[in-house]
Input
Amino acid sequence: MAPYEPEQDTTEADELSAGRRKAVRYVVPLAVAGVAAATIGLVPALATSGDPDLPDITAQELIEKIAASDTEQLSGTVKISTDLGLPSFGSGMTGGFAPGAGGGGGDDEGGKSAADPSAKLMELASGTHTLRIAADGPDKQKLSVLDDAAEYSLIHNGDDVWAYDSASNEAYHSKDGGAHADKNGKGGKGDRKDLPKELPATPKEFAEQALKAAEKSSTSVKVDGSAQVAGRDAYRLVLKPKDSGSTVGQITIAVDEKTGTPLKFTLSPAGGGSAVVDAGFTKVDFGKPSAATFDFKPPKGTKVTEEGDAAKKPGHPGGDLGDFKGEGPEGLNVIGDGWTSIAELKMPGGQGLPTSAAGSDEVPQEAAKFLDSLGDKVNGDFGSGTVFKTRLINALVTDDGKVYVGAVTKDALVKAANAAH
Output
């Protein structure tokens, strides 16, 4: 196919902006809308079987194609991997650090069901996972996380959202509007519960976040050839930060040539090496899924936790952590914008971490091992502190209890802390 246009210049930012804003609004067309789980190289079989010869298209036209996509019905299999460079502590990493997670299944001391999505879906934040998804408009979505001997499913069907964990034979159930019901128990018009949205799980959801960054003039945007994903021809849209200091190298989104649906998302780090995030379809069908796909009835003997019951138990986010629900941490301030934005906030209690985490009775041994393996001591005009590193997100925790975090380098964090001093 003929060469694509050169990288978009900053003078074209205004021209691209309108299309990008539309794309942000429509790029996740309620297909598996909001299914949770974070910001993965897929196996070679997912990549390409030869670049297809497609008609030329500009970056502006491709973004508008995404915005115009009206895909609401699909089914398929997604492979998602994350490589943040975190050390592995086996089950302790997910069981010990994930919110509300407890070893062994069942209700733990925090009162959470083993099927509660807020903890279960955090597992998608690391490693490689296979998902089976289906969607039929805004009221019917299903996502299943497939393990060797078990399956975890989230099902949204009309007024009901179910989560089922086959390993523990536990289910979690919530009703439409349950969290915002009025005195008659009815939810408001805007209270409909889609599947949880803590972390993205599909190429569309990742693409939505990336296109928000593409609204900034600090982003270069271009079409870089074509690919074949899950047997379908696709264009490759590439986004790159122009500003120095970001840990993001580039983001590549494979966009279905016929439907405008994102089929694959890859985030490559500025430091090189394998992708930090890679999520893509291995199989996809844009036909209407069977209605039975979204039917769910707890199997006999299943322990069912209702949303309201769990929220009343000690340790549940609806209780002890309720002050943070729907609001940012106290004192949150965002420094800068775009790719190099840094969040500044205060540690609870206004104190930093213990001088030696491993030697503190206040820090569990497993958590101390995790923190010490990531931390680098730093000094500056702000005083002293520790920078905790991953391949994408870095955080500076100062000894006087301030936190600076972002997808930026260690030097950028220290510079921000010095400027705020």
